[in-house]
Write a structure and sequence with these properties.
It is a single chain. The chain is built from eleven helices and two strands, in the order αααβααααβαααα. By secondary structure, the chain is mainly α. A two-stranded parallel ribbon has the order 1-2. The relative contact order is 0.15. The mean pLDDT is 80.
Length: 209
């Protein structure tokens, strides 16, 4: 992707895509969004000459609530569809936590563990907020002008207030309107306690007490 040797087909052929080959080939700059390669950030910044990537950290309860709702929309759940031992060896990706991961029960705890470990290793990395920029998703929503102005300055790009109009445009996966506290109504007290237990165990509750 970064060397221009590969083009992910969904960037062009997704039904809701607004991209085309001409825009990508002749654009002044390319913006990549990744959802599941957080742990590659140290490698990416070491091996490619990039503007500082932006690492967006979202409230774990909100993220897990959204993931469960997304799976429910398609009639499934993350435990049986994604983390089945025969399909996805989640515990092997984190050998230091393997026994703990195997002991987890329910999709809430599995998703909480995934959130915690994929973010913990980056937030505690020696290059954190140096080779990449950490930012809170909730802060972006609460104060977009200040947050985006800061990001543009750090990245080395000019910022114009009209850019904030793009925030109103829904992503291709948006199901409902964005609400930072909607998860409190979506998750049961039992689910919240289950998630909290994992966050505390892995030392990540401090970020969202």
């Amino acid at each position: 992707l970064f060397r221009g040797y590969y083009l992910e087909h969904r960037a062009i052929f997704h039904p809701n895509s607004q991209n085309d080959l001409q825009k990508i080939a002749f654009g002044s700059r390319l913006l990549f969004k990744f959802c599941r390669i957080n742990l590659l950030l140290p490698w990416l910044t070491k091996n490619f000459s990039l503007r500082p990537p932006v690492f967006v950290l979202r409230n774990p309860y909100a993220q897990i609530s959204s993931q469960i709702a997304f799976a429910n929309k398609f009639g499934g759940d993350w435990l049986s569809d994604v983390y089945d031992a025969n399909k996805y060896s989640f515990h092997k990706a984190y050998p230091n936590y393997s026994n703990y991961i195997i002991s987890l029960r329910g999709q809430e705890q599995i998703l909480a563990c995934q959130w915690a470990l994929s973010n913990k290793l980056l937030l505690e990395h020696k290059l954190s907020n140096k080779d990449w920029i950490n930012v809170s998703y909730e802060n972006l929503l609460s104060d977009p002008f200040i947050q985006f102005k800061f990001l543009f300055e750090k990245i080395g790009l000019d910022f114009y207030p009209r850019y904030l109009e793009d925030i109103k445009v829904k992503s291709r996966t948006t199901i409902t309107e964005v609400d930072k506290l909607k998860w409190k109504a979506k998750l049961s007290p039992k689910q919240i306690d289950s998630i909290t237990e994992v966050l505390v165990k892995l030392g990540m509750y401090k970020y969202y007490e």
